[in-house]
Amino acid sequence: MSESKKVIMLGNEAIARGAYEAGVKVSAAYPGTPSTEISEYLVQYKDDLYCEWSPNEKVATEVAIGASVVGVRAMSCMKHVGFNVAADPAYTVSYMGVNGGLVIVVADDPGLYSSQNEQDTRMVARAAQLPVLEPSDSAEAKEFMKLAFDLSERFDRPFVFRTTTRLAHSQGLVELNERVCPEDKPYEKDIRKTVMMPGNAKLRHVEIEKRNLELAEAANTLPINQVEMKDTKIGVITSGIPYQYVKEALPEASVLKLGMVNPLPRKLIEDFASKVETLYIVEELDPVIEEQVKSWGIQAVGKEIFTVQGEYSANMIREAILKEDLKLASPAQAPGRPPILCPGCPHRSVYYVLNKLKLHAAGDIGCYTLGAVAPLSVVDTTICMGASISSLHGMEKAKGKEYIKNWVAVIGDSTFLHTGVNSLMNMMYNKATGTVLILDNSTTGMTGHQDHAATGKTLQGDPTYAIDIPALCRAIGVKNVIEVNAFDIETLEKVVKEEVAKDEVSVIITKTPCVLLSKEKKPLYIAHEDKCKKCGMCMKPGCPAMTRNADGTIHIDDTMCTGCGLCESLCKFGAIELVKEGNR
To answer: Does the first or last residue of the chain, that is N or C, have fewer Cβ atoms within 10 Å of its Cβ?
Structure first.
């Protein structure tokens, strides 16, 4: 790749490029939309650095911390809820400081496009006393990454690099530069700095408070905090993607664009506020900037007119500040398209069986969460990664063994290795009895088919040892570990009935790869209208490849059918026939 040209890049690609140019040598991550592509782009530079998928965000952050301790630039990447998993090491490394530069990239999701909550990373970072940079476009994403590592080493502070869905997945023009690798910093043993026992941590807390004050003072002159003075009737303080909306909605307004959102440049803000008649603070999600500014006695308008929910837009800002009634034309009303499992998804047959048996499922984070919606309607709870098994355990301890025989926990293979394994250990340790279904589709499906510790392949493409999930469950102490083909519904139904009836912990592993992983030709099924009895049995799993004709008979869309054979196994009248063999 030429190092002297400008190219169009997604925000995530630009973040990866910035890390590369900054001389990062170690990157660890767990996939989570909208952050996933950062590592997928960064691994393209694997000849110059090391990238990995870690089992979870806590491990990823600890890997990066270890690399920093011995003197190289390192980073970890995750989505906002993953930052919760990484909170333990993140709060403590804030006290430790760094040796090599350390950056934690966190992608927030205003609008809840792919997440179970809408938390604001800036709030978590403030609590952890971690400084935060936030770019507003792809070009800044690349340059801010480089700056984050420089500032990290200059102030002995790990940095949080906050991005959002809109920035991560929008494109912008980025200028490419050469990779510059600073010399590895020598490792010098200093347990007062790197061993966070209480006596040392107390002293480090005092030290980081000093560093934070230095950083707050420096923020007043950092060029990433920019004042754009125009008409002084309206002044706006903003950061990140909302800056783009402000510029579109209020092109003549004066703007203070913050690139560092923690700590805030107080002197710069006070000076800007003194020069404008009315000050507005435009920030998505929580009033992080607003509350601090108002606490300094500065009058400003913020969440009185802006929402704390979802993404902003230029039109919303015009309506809120300029009181414009835009009377926009109503968009065309498209038919509702609720999310649904893909044709041929192995989770569908599992949920069909659970639905038939009238079992409730404690769910988890992944494609299989879609088992909550009609017509499958099996999943009753979804909380966070690994919570299916833990919540099932809590239900049993609350209601007893007989009650839990109407429930199972469902969890994917990647999620099981992320945090589910700890919950299964807890079940065994505390004498539980529930049944856990590990829906093993051999990938991290929801985020785009990333490898994990049980697939036998690393992020860098190297073959590696694949964790044996059944053996792992047995090693924990589970006696009843059964592997079943997800599409063998007769066997699956028999096994589920047997296992939920037991007064022991059982693990049922439905080992069937995601249909989208195979590039081979699929089998093809057709429905014979003359044989169809219109009973609707084949429609119960809700496969999108199947529809009803006007007369109530069944039609299979051969452009969508993946040949899983579930419909054929449900038809008792021979109306569905395999007409073309595939290669699986």
So the answer is: N
Q: In what order do the strands lie in the sheet with 506-511?
A: 379-381, 360-362, 407-412, 435-440, 506-511, 480-484
Q: Which of 136, 114, 88, 125 is nearest to 31 (CA)?
A: 114
CA–CA separation, 230 vs 33, rounded Å? 38
On whether the CB atoms of residues 342 and 545 are closer than 8 A, the answer is no
CA proximity to 49, closest of 23, 68, 12, 14: 23
Q: What number of other Cβ atoms are within 10 A of residue 336's Cβ?
A: 5
Question: Cα–Cα distance between 223 and 558 in angstroms, integer?
Answer: 58
Torsion of CA 561, 566, 569, 572, to 10 degrees: -70
Residue 321: partners with Cβ closer than 8 Å, 6 or more residues away: 234, 249, 250, 280, 305
Per-residue pLDDT in tens (0 to 9) along the chain, 584 residues: 445 689 999 999 999 999 999 999 999 999 999 999 999 999 999 999 999 999 999 999 999 999 999 999 999 999 999 999 999 999 999 999 999 999 999 999 999 888 999 999 999 999 999 999 999 999 999 999 999 999 999 999 999 999 999 999 999 999 999 999 999 999 999 999 999 999 999 999 999 999 999 999 999 999 999 999 999 999 999 999 999 999 999 999 999 999 999 999 999 999 999 999 999 999 999 999 999 999 999 999 999 999 999 999 999 999 999 987 766 666 677 777 777 898 989 999 999 999 999 999 999 999 899 989 889 999 999 999 999 999 999 999 999 999 999 999 999 999 999 999 999 999 999 999 999 999 999 898 888 899 999 999 999 999 999 999 999 999 999 999 999 999 999 999 999 999 999 999 999 999 999 988 877 778 889 999 899 999 999 999 999 999 999 999 999 998 889 989 999 999 999 999 988 775 43
- In DSSP notation, 426-443 reads HHHHTT---EEEEEE-SS
- The predicted model scores a pTM of 0.92
Q: How far apart are CA 302 and CA 290, in angstroms?
A: 6
The answer to whether the beta carbons of residues 158 and 194 sit under 8 Å apart is no
Q: Measured between alpha carbons, how far is 35 from 80 in angstroms, rounded to an integer?
A: 9
Decide: 52 and 30 in contact? Cβ < 8 Å: no
